[in-house]
Amino acid sequence: MKKKNKSEKVCPCGRIITDPKNKTGLCPKCQKTGVNIGGALGLAGIVILVKKHSGKIMKGAINVVKNLK
């Protein structure tokens, strides 16, 4: 049986990560995939919020511009 280093982590895809500075426990490929998925979900959330509340946002912006003059 091979002793496993405490600094070694295993990514969900099966790769062994030996970098002691890696805090996520994911390999670079899985990190990139996670960031891409998170970015897409964040963008979708922003689009949904803007679509839902765009009228209120525009009215508020117009009122702020009028009050500045």
Low-pLDDT stretches are none
Mean pLDDT: 86
Sheet of most strands: 2 strands, antiparallel
Tally of helical runs:
1
Q: Helical amount among residues, as a percent range?
A: 55-70%
**Main β-sheet, spatial strand arrangement:** 1-2
How are helices and strands ordered from N to C? EEH
Span between termini: 77 Å
Radius of gyration, Cα only, in angstroms?
23 Å
Please report the total strand number as a whole number: 2
Strand content: 5-15%
The domain tally reads 1
Choose one word for the global shape: elongated
Query: Structural class of the helix and strand makeup?
Result: mainly alpha
Question: Could you explain how this protein is built, in words?
Answer:
The chain has one helix spanning 28-68; strands at 9-10, 16-17. It has 69 residues and is mainly alpha-helical. It has one domain. A two-stranded antiparallel sheet has the order 1-2. The longest helix is centred in the last third of the chain and has 41 residues, at 28-68. The protein is elongated and about 65 Å long. The model has no long low-confidence stretch (mean pLDDT 86).
Chart the SSEs and their pairings.
Blueprint (H helix, E strand, L loop, with lengths): L8 E2 L5 E2 L10 H41 L1
What does this entry show, briefly?
The protein is built from one helix and two strands. The chain has one helix spanning 28-68; strands spanning 9-10, 16-17.
